[in-house]
């Protein structure tokens, strides 16, 4: 990566102290199993979407509080809409801040996308134009939100299927410029990189090599669904495929220890099956760490 082409950083956010290893997205489908388990469940951490618990009473927030008393919980948002024209409301940010504090998340992340139109939530993660204007607008919004939340922020690279207009720069450069200007972290979703590489015809490993990996706070892996047309859809509804796990291992070889999260949002199997997949992911994670340890230059930066 050539830093001379990037905007000078306004602030640098060091990677915060947090969990290391493979975690699992906490879903209501097996929330009872987690709460009622008499033995600790073997995951490095749980990730939750705080919007599913904010503004609620009753069982769900009470159950999440029990989980956060026993395990490390990390928050990952769905509706901040960092790329939207309108900024998130003050009420939303205050409620989000309270929820992050309640579960003790060491950082908060959301997606590099637009997911709202005015006050309407679109329930989708739409790409924004890769332009210098959006670099500045999104980075400034991240800095403002981070100050209000009181915890470090990271954004996630999304899967996308069409770009809104002619891009001014490649995606990796768009991501790096926002990281540089905002000083925030990157939630690197390697499945999203893989899906985009197949749909848009580029080398996934080369793409990751061009990212500022020193900014990575966390990594996501998930499953996807091929279609008859050849398009791959990021469904989070299937086991993680070997090429994505190999991409994870090569990324860990570069970055060293990271919190890695298995996402499963559709066709959710039994918790026992998901925990078996966590163990499979951990095997690739350990391979990456072993290779990382053999590289003196990488080990020095870990």
Look up the CATH topology: TIM Barrel
Distance between the termini: 19 Å
Strand residue content: 15-25%
- Summed up, the helix count is 10
* Helical residue percent band: 40-55%
Structural class computed from helices and strand pairing: alpha/beta
What shape does the CA trace take?
globular
User: What would CATH call the class?
Assistant: Alpha Beta
Unreliable stretches: 1-12
Taken in chain order, the helices and strands follow as EHEHEHEEEHEHEHHEEEHEHH
What multimeric state do the chains show? single chain
**What number of domains?**
1
Q: In which order are the strands of the major sheet placed?
A: 1-2-3-4-7-8-9-12
CATH architecture: Alpha-Beta Barrel
Q: In this structure, how is the largest beta sheet organized?
A: 8 strands, parallel, barrel
CA-based gyration radius: 18 Å
- Within CATH, the superfamily carries the name Divalent-metal-dependent TIM barrel enzymes
Q: What does it look like?
A:
The protein has 302 residues and is α/β, with parallel strands linked by helices. Helix content is 40%, strand content 17%. α2 (59-70) links the parallel β2 (46-48) and β3. α4 (132-149) crosses α5.
Task: Name a few traits of the molecule.
single chain, 302 residues, alpha/beta, TIM Barrel, two-stranded antiparallel sheet, 10 helices, 40% helix, disordered N terminus
Fold blueprint:
Elements lengths: L20 E5 L5 H6 L9 E3 L10 H12 L2 E4 L13 H14 L4 E4 L2 E4 L2 E7 L5 H18 L3 E4 L14 H12 L2 E5 H11 L3 H6 L6 E7 L2 E2 L5 E2 L8 H14 L3 E5 L7 H23 L2 H6 L1
Parallel strand pairs: 1-2, 1-12, 2-3, 3-4, 4-7, 7-8, 8-9, 9-12
Antiparallel strand pairs: 5-6, 10-11
Helix pairs in contact: 4-5, 8-9
